[in-house]
């Protein structure tokens, strides 16, 4: 195969936030960058998660040289268990990311068969015709990397999720020196994070939070409960240190945060000062002003610790007058309503709640416009492909490049399955690969599609009505009383008249057509249409109608 | 009855944004302030709108002296048709509000029987033991009023929805002079809008938008499409004037906006400069740089003009390269996803889209914290009840009052149905009235409740399975093959094995218990449990299961 041609194909993370997955192909080598999941949108009823369409990778499993995971967030790592069910390839990740992956591969079979390799910034990973060198970037989880990808036709750079934080709490800045060296080497293609492309200016530094947390902790008289993301380990470390300095102990509420802290503590990414860590039961015995609780549920997730506290159903923590609850987080669009409901409930229980942008208790982990421009100007690639973002973000990121002087024909806003081909003659789009939505619902992957979702949507709006009627085989007339069973349609105790009208309508249809029509399907169809009409006239609702016509 | 006691009871608008309705009672007089609707939250499946529980008003209909509507927004006026179906009372409103109400009372019967009266700021409206004088306030719709309510025990003030805009586009400011006179008279109770209580500082003036719109219009080369709220008439006027100044004609896309503009134009609240107004068909014949289209759909409503343009299914306007689409609006929480989807689609079609807070194309119609403090300090009431807001907003508004020196016992955060009683001895809470959620779904009001919503939720997640089996009356064994019908559960073409397993399970249950058990209900229950178990094991889904056991 021609290894002087490189193909870049995103399977996710373009036109959407989530399920990042980019496929690199060169000669007969395939390398996969990230394998993330996406949380379902509102209209994906009953769907648990959405994953990339891995069919192309499964079909070409023998050519996959490796999977590199840029950091440990769900939208970069969450679909790995699904990918590893079908393909066997080495997985490369930095220590913390690897720790989180191991925890994620719960099924013993998967964990035993997975080939996991630890990599560090500066390592050179030869993968077939590609050689990959990770470099350190700042993000809202430690140990995040971007990738320098050396190919037979030259150097590509993939930023991963990044921001440029000159004073990060984890200590190391995005490796600008390394980026400058890559730039000097000459970059053919830059692929960059677009998540915050809508935000002008610079994203604030994590260290800006030190003062804010101190001030807010200083004001609180009673217990302090901090809700944040379980993966935001530098934030968690900041809360631990602030608490310890102010004479408070720290307990953790929420399984995912406990697990992440355990992994991070083992690897040195989270440290508790001596005598700071306590269990929830231990901390309950302390005076209020010595208590700090780290909790999951900053997005209002109904089963997370904070939502259960807000609803008064968390065993060890009962919210009371004097408590201060801090939201060190930003609402992911779509979650606003459930977050607000929790805040309301916490206020109702007497807590003081500090939340929202004005509170200054959160900074983003993604680069804003000036940082994106800096990355573009620092690397000055020949070609540019914005990744990781909904379509408008990719478009705005592309527009930033145009403002910096890039030619429109050198900027590629890709869609899922699009193939960007780079070779000695330049860059162009190839024939796109058809990709489908892959919904995971329960233990089944991929069976839920438009039909099932349409049915669920109809049922969710007006419920269903089963109309069961027996027809005498010899006369074609109704035998016995038709039976009506409904759920989610109308309030039964008040709908006697409507149900009687439905029964009469069924009898009427059968008596009129039964003697002439042999086909019970046709009778059923006529009952269905008649009931649809009746119910719509009487209620302006359109329940799903299931006619069951049996011979008696 | 004792008319030296006044009761204030909110039936909505507290603990929620929407369906504002406050009941005032004095002696045997009842006055209703506003009768608004609320749009359903995500989990209120199939519900069209939510209205206040009017039962108390219906029970006491003979004592209702009047209904005063503060302005023409749906959350203040939208439930009026439902209230007027059951009670007959005079409705008082300013000219524009009255025009919008007339349009709303579509049913001829309602419109013919409604007693509508036009009021103006400064009028004195005697309603039984109460005398009410409206005063002008700024809000995001013209002709909005607050109310001075004179009672036998003294003066109450209700702000309505307001902001303090010193340079409003409609010309008149919130009547601070009148508020100062009321303050001098001595205010017992202030009830005030809390919608923006979370926002520090001052809400920006509408007139700040003049420059922004000019700048954005100046930059656009092609057509301009402005999406905004159909009720935001001063904004609509600003767009019309900017367009006219820049040599563009204006057409309107969207029924609600057309209707509102027609009403407002007749009453003088919207004016088109000569030769500016065009139909969509006329404007389609002009060069792009002379085109400005006002469109509904700023909240992403799927059937509004903008969403149809974004989806490529609006007959007269096909979005193309060079179009500029402006969002002069702010996302109502919960609508973010559908708004973003429209923006993405507009970008995909080639438009430049200007949206978000940074764009500066929208200002709020509600008072921020400093304005709320100004209102409190200007009126210095004895007692204060924040209204119009979700619980956290009411709480924060109450906290502002405490910062200003109000005593905690003089500040009342009310819930729906709470009664605040004012008399010569002071203010206290009375026995609350039990109020229920009232959902409107189709043509039925109030029948949808927790049972129906729970059923719809279950159906929306995993669909249903009907298991139909005939049992031989004499032997108790299965007659014929059991029949399985499902919707929204699994993808049928790939589920043959599962359905066969279900049939076998049904046969097994009937053959085991049928000969012993006489009660078909019990057999049905056993089938249900067996299938629940089978389906959960095989799919981790929990469809609603309807067993139908018939005798053969």
Identify the notable features of this structure and list them briefly:
Rossmann fold; 6-stranded mixed beta sheet; homodimer; 552 residues; alpha/beta; 3 domains; 24% strand
The CATH architecture of the largest domain in chain A can be named as: 4-Layer Sandwich
Q: Any idea how many domains of chain A?
A: 3
Largest interface: A-B, 60 and 60 residues
**Structural class determined from secondary elements of chain A:** alpha/beta
- Average pLDDT confidence of chain A is 95
State the oligomer. Answer: homodimer
The residue fraction in helices of chain A comes out at: 25-40%
Strand proportion of chain A:
15-25%
Task: Please name the fourth-level CATH homologous superfamily of the largest domain in chain A.
Answer: Ribonuclease Z/Hydroxyacylglutathione hydrolase-like
Give the biggest sheet of chain A.
8 strands, mixed
Helical run tally of chain A: 17
What is the CATH level 1 assignment of the largest domain in chain A?
Alpha Beta
Q: Count the beta strands of chain A.
A: 25
Strand order across the biggest sheet of chain A? 7-6-5-3-2-1-19-20
CATH topology name of the largest domain in chain A, in short, is Metallo-beta-lactamase, Chain A
Estimated radius of gyration of chain A = 29 Å
